[in-house]
Structures are given as structure tokens and as C-alpha cells.
């Protein structure tokens, strides 16, 4: 049986990990490399890194900070923000990433998904989606609209249709970021996560809203999500308490959710 993955997400600006509430009112936490070292030591399954202002500021991703994180972790590492073409993808991979997340640029130029998939392999391309619940219309039948540029611009695109198109173009994974639930610590948006996971044939990551262990068991038992982002639960000062990766995995294991076990570090005595 495949295990469900726990993913730490770093929203980064100026080299610092920052936390927001519904994509606004950011507060800085700590340097990305420092947090990466601690969370890797806690045996997180994966890390996602977003340079959250690169697209809106129309600049390249902060490669120095990407490198600072890559030096600290030896788990799958996904990087996004300011990715505009194959050259940018190559630079990110060369800096230490194993997967590339594309979001706003994919909306502006969907062919970048196909180009990246052909050049680096489908498994390397993650389509990140900023979604917001809206009234259902003929144009947005799912009731969820796609936004870009850090939820600053709404596209009029239907989230489910975009997910299907992204898969058809070559995305190997989809991250569903709920704008409404982001930073609320009230739980994931089960409706849109389930809708997308039921209608694509690639892994889906739930994102936005986790605040306690029960939210993880809910998203894994009520949807077909393959992974969940747990950034606030690990280090945000806005949450009532933080959790270790081992605490979360123990809770999920006891709840019947199959997760990768924590490896107990054995101590070896050297004899000379």
C-alpha cells in the first residue's frame, strides 16, 4: 500500500520563511535554510519551496536561498516561483531541486507544462493551483476559480478543468492550494481536494488550512489526496501549538492512515 506523504511548505521572501493568512498579512519566521535543517532532522517526507513574490515582481527565483535549503535536506525537494521557461527550470534543478512547481506562468503559458515534462520528465513537474470557492456558473461549473500571482488576480478559469488540462499537458502531480482555508488552521478544503483527486490520475497534494492532527486524518480518509502540506503545524507562531513530524505520523498511524514510519536513530559506539 502506498504511504501518504507529509510535506513541509516554505513560503519564502527575502530568504526568510514567512506565514500568511489567506495569502495576506505575512509574518517572517526564520531563514529557510535553518528551518529546513530542523525539519529534515525531524524526518519530514518532502519539502516544497515557493518564492512567493517572484512572479508578481517579475523576477527570477531566489537561487541562493534554494541552494541554502538543498544543502540541508535529502528528501524530495520541490521549488516554485518565478519559473518562466526551460532555462529557469534547469537553473532550479541545478541548484538542488528535484521537482519544479509552476503556477502563475502555467496559466499564462500552458505549454510550459508540456515543455518541462518532455525536457525533464513528467515526475519532475508539479502544477500548483491557487483555488477559491465562488458561485457555480456555466464558466466555473466546479464552483472553484483559479487565481494567480499570490491570489492577487482571478482568472475566470475553472479549477477542475484546469487540473484536467494540466494533467493532459504533462503535469506529474497537482498541489491544490485553498485560498479560503490558507492560514486559518480550520482544516483543508475537502470539497475541492476530493473533486480534483477523483478526476485526475496523478498524485494530488492538499494544501491550506491544517491546524491539528485530525485535519490530516480527515483529508486522507475523506479524499484520495496522496499528500498534505503541514507548514503551519510545524513552525507557525500563529497556531496554538506546533507539532513534530513524529507526533503527526503517530497520530495518523493510530488513525489507520498508512504513513512512512519514523526511523529510530541508532547510536553506534566506535571501538579503536
Widest β-sheet, arrangement of strands: 1-4-5-6-7-10-11-12
**CATH top level assignment:** Alpha Beta
Number of helices: 10
The CATH homology group name = Aldolase class I
- Structural class, by secondary structure, is alpha/beta
Number of strands: 12
Descriptors:
272 residues, alpha/beta, TIM Barrel, 10 helices, 12 strands, globular
Give a short overview.
The chain has 272 residues and is of the alpha/beta class. It has helices spanning 32-41, 63-70, 86-94, 104-108, 111-120, 159-169, 190-199, 213-222, 231-235, 245-254, and strands at 5-13, 16-21, 24-31, 46-51, 77-80, 99-102, 125-133, 144-148, 153-158, 173-178, 204-207, 227-229.
Task: Explain what the structure shows.
With 272 residues, this protein is of the alpha/beta class. Mean pLDDT is 91; it is low at 267-272. Helix 1 runs parallel beside helix 2 and helix 6 packs parallel to helix 7. Helix 3 links the parallel strand 5 and strand 6 (99-102). The chain has one domain (5-254): Alpha-Beta Barrel (TIM Barrel), CATH 3.20.20.70. It is 32% helix and 26% strand. The termini are far apart. An eight-stranded parallel beta barrel has the order 1-4-5-6-7-10-11-12, surrounded by six helices.
Mind sketching the topology for me?
Blueprint: E1 5-13, E2 16-21, E3 24-31, H1 32-41, E4 46-51, H2 63-70, E5 77-80, H3 86-94, E6 99-102, H4 104-108, H5 111-120, E7 125-133, E8 144-148, E9 153-158, H6 159-169, E10 173-178, H7 190-199, E11 204-207, H8 213-222, E12 227-229, H9 231-235, H10 245-254
Parallel strand pairs: 1-4, 1-12, 4-5, 5-6, 6-7, 7-10, 10-11, 11-12
Antiparallel strand pairs: 1-2, 2-3, 7-8, 8-9
Amino acid at each position: 500500500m502506498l504511504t501518504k506523504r507529509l510535506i513541509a511548505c516554505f513560503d519564502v521572501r527575502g530568504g526568510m520563511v514567512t506565514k500568511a493568512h489567506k495569502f495576506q498579512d505575512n509574518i517572517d519566521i526564520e531563514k529557510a535554510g535553518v528551518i529546513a535543517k530542523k525539519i529534515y532532522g525531524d524526518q519530514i517526507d518532502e519539502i516544497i519551496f515557493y518564492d512567493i513574490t517572484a512572479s508578481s515582481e517579475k523576477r527570477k527565483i531566489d537561487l541562493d536561498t534554494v541552494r541554502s535549503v538543498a544543502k540541508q535536506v535529502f528528501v524530495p525537494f520541490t521549488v516554485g516561483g518565478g519559473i518562466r521557461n526551460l532555462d529557469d527550470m534547469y537553473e532550479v534543478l541545478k541548484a538542488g531541486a528535484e521537482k519544479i512547481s509552476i503556477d502563475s506562468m502555467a496559466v499564462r503559458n500552458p505549454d510550459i507544462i508540456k515543455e518541462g515534462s518532455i525536457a525533464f520528465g513528467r515526475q519532475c513537474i508539479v502544477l500548483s493551483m491557487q483555488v477559491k470557492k465562488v458561485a457555480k456558473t456555466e464558466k466555473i461549473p466546479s464552483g472553484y476559480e483559479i487565481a494567480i500571482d499570490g491570489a492577487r488576480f482571478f482568472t475566470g478559469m475553472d479549477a477542475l478543468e484546469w487540473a484536467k488540462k494540466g494533467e493532459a499537458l504533462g503535469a506529474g502531480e497537482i498541489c491544490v492550494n485553498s485560498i479560503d482555508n490558507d492560514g486559518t488552521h480550520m482544516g483543508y478544503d475537502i470539497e475541492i481536494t476530493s473533486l480534483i483527486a477523483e478526476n485526475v490520475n496523478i498524485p494530488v497534494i492538499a494544501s491550506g488550512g491544517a491546524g491539528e492532527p485530525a485535519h490530516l486524518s480527515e483529508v486522507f480518509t475523506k479524499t484520495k489526496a496522496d499528500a498534505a502540506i503541514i507548514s503551519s503545524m510545524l513552525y507557525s507562531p500563529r497556531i496554538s501549538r506546533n507539532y513534530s513530524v513524529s507526533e503527526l505520523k503517530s497520530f495518523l498511524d493510530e488513525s489507520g492512515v498508512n504513513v512512512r514510519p519514523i526511523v529510530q536513530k541508532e547510536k553506534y559506539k566506535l571501538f579503536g
